[in-house]
Amino acid sequence: ATFGTLSDRLTETFRNLRTKGKLSAADVDQTVREIRRALLDADVALVVVKEFTAKVRERALGDEVNRALNPAQQVVQIVNEELVGILGGEQRRLQFAKNPPTVIMLAGLQGSGKTTFAGKLAKQLEKDGHTPILVACDLQRPNAVNQLQVVAERAGAAVFAPEPGNGVGDPVRVARDGVEYARRQQHDIVIIDTAGRLGVDAELMKQAADIRKATDPDEVLFVIDAMVGQDAVNTAKAFQEGVDFTGVVLSKLDGDARGGAALSVASVTQRPIIFASTGEGLEDLEPFYPDRMASRILDLGDILTLIEQAQQAFDEEEALAVAEKLANEQFTLEDFLGQLQQMKKMGSMKKMLGMLPGMGQMKQQLEQFDEREIDRTEAIIRSMTPAERRNPKVLNGSRRLRIARGSGMTVTDVNQLVQRFDQAAKMMKTVARGGVPNIPGMGPV
Ligand code: GDP
């Protein structure tokens, strides 16, 4: 699947990090090196990789990570933010003309998916109540006009094309006539499909530039096959210089693209990716969301949501205090009670644990985990005196019986809690270090 290898590599990198507490400069460098290698292997352009890793490194060594409760997760968040950044930041929608028709011109190499995209876009626009017309300006390829007609028919859209047999006409003129025709026929959107070549060439660029001049489009969309590797950047640059474009369409994102094109093109051209084309069917078109794409690349489940929740739930100062106590073996049931309350703030434990990557094998245990366990534990601790909470060793038989009665539990429950307190202290140690907690009542993970 798309980004498979890149995702795997990044996940692996972060998995190594996840077990660490404080990050040393060497940890950060190691991580950045791995990210760099993963991106280069995914065919992301070198300039983009350099800039990206430099930013990640600088931020990862900075204060936001140093002060974070969980430095590793903070690094993941930084990588995510920087990924969203190179993918263009905010989502950018198609822009429509104030006075219709809106003219959308497509440019790109032959086989990049322009004609297919024209059909997909027409179909989507129709669904939104528009009346698009496709204009066939690829008069180079013998079958191109016919192909556009077929696609238009499938999309149920109108077509403006030169008469068959007249294939050697002037594409600039066809484009201009097409826009005129659309205006007369009250089509509110014109999609101009232009000729592509297998490689970039001067004549192709000039023709596209002339069509642009003649029709003054509201959008010029550069369609690029996401499966092309390092070439993506050079092709995109050539089109930017030769025609320039207002946005990018990434096609064939359903294939086994390594992701390089997606990550490079927006960054190098500073033009937003507006659509992702994800299949041969006319329905396979999606608006492009940089943030969603970044999450997909990172493939860390909902780890970022989890981080946010954890950040809200854990008061950092308190966590430091707890860590201190753990180190000095001063962690008491009183502190444990405080921690349980923090955990409850994080919301459903089940849901939270489910969001952690690599928890698949724990599904069954998760199913068995009873959230009321926390409530029961809380009830028992609340029935203890402060002295008992500070030092469970004083809990003799009669005290345990009193606590059981007070909390509505059995003496066995109380005994188990005291036993598990040791385990829980270990778990808190893990949480404080940013690991996966070993929940009391769930047995060892
Ligand atoms: P054009 O030469 O730029 O007009 O490219 P076409 O639209 O003719 O597409 C070239 C080939 O890629 C065709 O076989 C399309 O079916 C295929 N294609 C286009 N878009 C996609 C896509 O998003 N996913 C997949 N899998 N194939 C696509």
UniProtKB/TrEMBL annotation:
Compartment list: Cytoplasm
Cited SUPFAM superfamilies: P-loop containing nucleoside triphosphate hydrolases, Signal peptide-binding domain
InterPro entries: AAA+_ATPase, P-loop_NTPase, Signal_recog_part_SRP54_M_sf, Signal_recog_particl_SRP54_hlx, Signal_recog_particle_SRP54_M, SRP, SRP54, SRP54_GTPase_dom
Protein's UniProt keywords contain Ubl conjugation: no
Protein EC: 3.6.5.4
Keyword GTP-binding in record: yes
Catalytic activity line of the entry: GTP + H2O = GDP + phosphate + H(+)
Annotated PROSITE patterns: SRP54 (PS00300)
Positions with a binding annotation for GTP: 108-115, 193-197, 251-254
CDD domains: SRP_G
Keywords: Cytoplasm, GTP-binding, Hydrolase, Nucleotide-binding, Ribonucleoprotein, RNA-binding, Signal recognition particle
Residues of the SRP54-type proteins GTP-binding domain: 272-285
Domains: entry comment: Composed of three domains: the N-terminal N domain, which is responsible for interactions with the ribosome, the central G domain, which binds GTP, and the C-terminal M domain, which binds the RNA and the signal sequence of the RNC.
Family recorded in the similarity comment: Belongs to the GTP-binding SRP family. SRP54 subfamily.
Function: Involved in targeting and insertion of nascent membrane proteins into the cytoplasmic membrane. Binds to the hydrophobic signal sequence of the ribosome-nascent chain (RNC) as it emerges from the ribosomes. The SRP-RNC complex is then targeted to the cytoplasmic membrane where it interacts with the SRP receptor FtsY.
Subunit text: Part of the signal recognition particle protein translocation system, which is composed of SRP and FtsY.
The protein's name: Signal recognition particle protein
Organism the protein comes from: Microbacterium thalli
